[in-house]
Design goal:
Blueprint lengths: L3 H22 L3 H18 L1 H15 L3 H24 L5 H7 E2 L3 H9 L5 E5 L5 H7 L7 E5 L5 H11 L4 E5 L3 H10 L3 E5 L9 E5 L2 E5 L2 H9 L3 E8 L6 E5 L12 H22 L29
Parallel strand pairs: 1-9, 2-5, 2-8, 3-4, 3-5
Antiparallel strand pairs: 6-7, 8-9
Length: 312
């Protein structure tokens, strides 16, 4: 049962967020990006804890010299600010707008060819570039699509955000019961999108990510194995002008190795997917979500992080 103070606070959060997102949605494209970058600048200024997280993790994983850390951290926060502004525009974007702003680089045809096998498709992605628009792409492929997401703590705000995310045909599966719903989608030859780049705590598999072992959820791979679906790693990378995107993906889908045991297969596929995502992230590392403590559940063991390449 919510307390009166908590209920009032959540109502104010919901109303404030809805008004702000609505205003952002109707701003001109260029103005929305300018405001998004300024939001990132303000967040960088006031959130010392997350600023420090970005600095520490990027220094360790990328080996950045001290004179580059400040600029890298600012670009990271600005990208997140622009993602927020672009998310607001999902509420009024039409299908054709995606094809105007996004270079699919053949990804749409590639996915349709995999769906022609009739086994569904699991797209594994990361908080990189613009992951919100990236998740929306699953609903544009001409098949039923869904994405697994943790619900927000504020139920009213969560319902509003979910409505925006689902506007272009994507379904959001809350974590409670999500695997069952996702499995049903795959067995109906649909597309399921999953973010793989967040710390999974004690329930995760230790797998190399950006050169260091990180706790990674195995459920997306287990889900694909149960449905017999191929797995594809893909991200939506921001272009140099900051206002367009290109899909980066591995054109070779991952499938189970029949000569391996189920446990070995799951570990091998998790490692392969983390390797793909790491490679994409290292192309433009300031577009990744460095404010998340990706390695907080990692033990002391670490792999070489340099040379911009994971060990398979």
């Amino acid at each position: 049962m919510e307390s009166g103070i908590r209920r009032i606070r959540r109502i104010f959060e919901y109303c404030g967020a809805r008004i702000f997102l609505t205003c952002l949605a109707w701003l001109p494209w260029k103005a929305a990006h300018w405001l998004g970058r300024r939001l990132g600048d303000v967040w960088l200024l006031v959130d010392a804890k997350r600023r420090k997280t970005v600095e520490l993790q990027s220094t360790e994983r990328l080996g950045l010299p001290p004179n580059e850390i400040r600029s890298f951290t600012r670009r990271t926060f600005r990208n997140i600010g622009m993602v927020f502004a672009e998310f607001a525009r999902l509420s009024r974007l039409r299908r054709e707008d995606f094809f105007r702003y996004v270079d699919f680089a053949g990804f749409d045809g590639f996915c349709r060819s995999l769906l022609s096998e009739g086994c569904g498709l699991v797209i594994v992605t990361a908080h990189y570039g613009n992951w919100e628009w990236g998740n929306a792409i699953a609903g544009l492929l001409g098949a039923s699509g869904g994405s697994i997401a943790r619900p927000l703590d504020n139920p009213r705000l969560d319902g509003y955000v979910k409505k925006i995310r689902e506007r272009n045909g994507l379904r959001i599966y809350d974590k409670q019961g999500a695997l069952r719903q996702a499995l049903r989608t795959l067995r109906n030859n649909g597309v399921v999108g999953v973010l793989l780049d967040q710390d999974a705590g004690s329930r995760g598999l230790m797998s190399p990510f950006l050169g260091r072992l990180a706790s990674t959820v195995p459920e997306p791979v287990e889900l694909a194995l149960r449905a017999g679906s191929p797995l594809v790693a893909a991200v939506l990378r921001r272009s140099a002008d900051g206002r367009r995107f290109v899909v980066r993906y591995n054109p070779i889908p991952h499938r189970p190795n029949p000569d391996r045991s189920p446990d070995e297969t799951i570990r091998e596929l998790v490692n392969d997917l983390n390797s793909d995502l790491s490679r994409f992230i290292l192309e433009e590392p300031d577009q990744w979500f460095w404010i998340h403590r990706r390695w907080k559940s990692t033990g002391r063991e670490s792999l070489p992080a340099r040379n911009r390449q994971d060990r398979r």
